[in-house]
Write a structure and sequence with these properties.
This protein has 157 residues and is mainly beta. It is built from no helices and 14 strands. The strands form 4 sheets. It has a 4-stranded antiparallel sheet, with no helix packed on it. A 4-stranded antiparallel sheet has the order 7-8-9-10, with no helix packed on it. A 4-stranded antiparallel sheet has the order 11-12-13-14, with no helix packed on it. It starts with a strand and ends with a strand.
Length: 157
């Protein structure tokens, strides 16, 4: 992802990635994750990122030369995101961590929000644990049941 597009590269030769396609969008901050044939992109408008659109975009990337936008979900202030199994985790700034059910990959369904006094900035799902970078520290969640995160610990700076 970049500030104005999602790029798709072929890694048949990892030493020389080949650009296959790009999808332009509004100027904004733009993290991307992909699972199978579906890519999820968060756009965050505002001062630093430019633009005024804040949303989760869903793309079918079955044909990597012609990604197709399938869905868009408005969000307040999306940042980083991560995917594990049938769950998509989207950091939504001071509006918490949003957990989406992606059993229907192209139409994410919001399941819950983890809220509180933390600004959620980025997440990494890893072996049943979700590592969440929040303003002022890191939070660890058990996601052995991907759609039901359980707080394990909260480490503050």
């Amino acid at each position: 992802g970049s500030s104005d597009a999602m790029f798709i590269y072929n890694l048949d030769n990892p030493a020389k990635p080949q650009r296959e396609s790009a999808v332009s969008h509004f100027r904004s901050c733009d993290p991307v994750v992909t699972q199978g044939n579906t890519s999820y992109v968060t756009l965050r408008g505002g001062r630093t990122c430019g633009g005024n659109v804040s949303a989760l975009l869903v793309y079918d990337v079955t044909d990597i030369k012609r990604p197709l936008q399938k869905h868009s979900i408005p969000l307040e202030s999306p940042y980083g995101l991560g995917v594990q199994d049938s769950a998509l985790y989207v950091c939504n700034g001071t509006n918490g961590l949003v957990v989406f059910d992606i059993k229907n990959a192209e139409v994410p369904r919001e399941l819950m929000r983890v809220t509180g006094d933390n600004k959620y900035i980025d997440v990494i799902p890893y072996n049943g644990v979700l590592i969440a970078y929040v303003e002022g520290g890191i939070r660890f969640f058990d996601i052995s049941e991907p759609q039901k995160p359980v707080l394990l610990s909260d480490m503050k700076n």
